[in-house]
């Protein structure tokens, strides 16, 4: 059943993003930012962790999970180190994904030629 709920929840998050594109005519940057903020707000209110436990990858793969990670890391480190922990917690939790995006982007730029 976990695969079913992962598919449904992940699909609903994607449908929300598509509605933002089609109905509200938001740009990709606005849609991306809005979904990250929604994930951050849900984690701030303690609602994203139960969603992850319910839907698994359906909640951890979409971009809303990045907002969740930012807030989750900031709050966890703030408890340990105070206000400095807010900044370090954000980087600690998200650094692997950001580093991978940069590394693979550079590798892709080296390997492939742009069209045009």
Automatic annotation (TrEMBL):
A family per Pfam: SpoVAC_SpoVAEB
Keyword Transmembrane: yes
Name of the protein in its database record: Stage V sporulation protein AE
Keyword list, A-Z: Membrane, Transmembrane, Transmembrane helix
Transmembrane segments: 51-71, 83-112
Organism: Pseudogracilibacillus auburnensis
Key word Transmembrane helix present: yes
């Amino acid at each position: 059943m976990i695969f079913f709920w992962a598919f449904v929840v992940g699909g609903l998050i994607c449908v929300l993003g598509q509605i933002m594109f089609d109905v509200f005519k938001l740009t990709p940057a606005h849609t991306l930012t809005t979904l990250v903020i929604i994930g951050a707000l849900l984690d701030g209110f303690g609602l994203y962790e139960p969603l992850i436990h319910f839907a698994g990858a359906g909640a951890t793969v979409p971009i809303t999970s990045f907002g969740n990670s930012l807030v989750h890391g900031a709050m966890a480190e703030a408890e340990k180190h105070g206000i400095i922990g807010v900044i370090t917690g954000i980087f600690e939790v998200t650094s692997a994904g950001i580093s991978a995006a940069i590394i693979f982007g550079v590798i892709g730029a080296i390997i492939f030629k742009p069209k045009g």
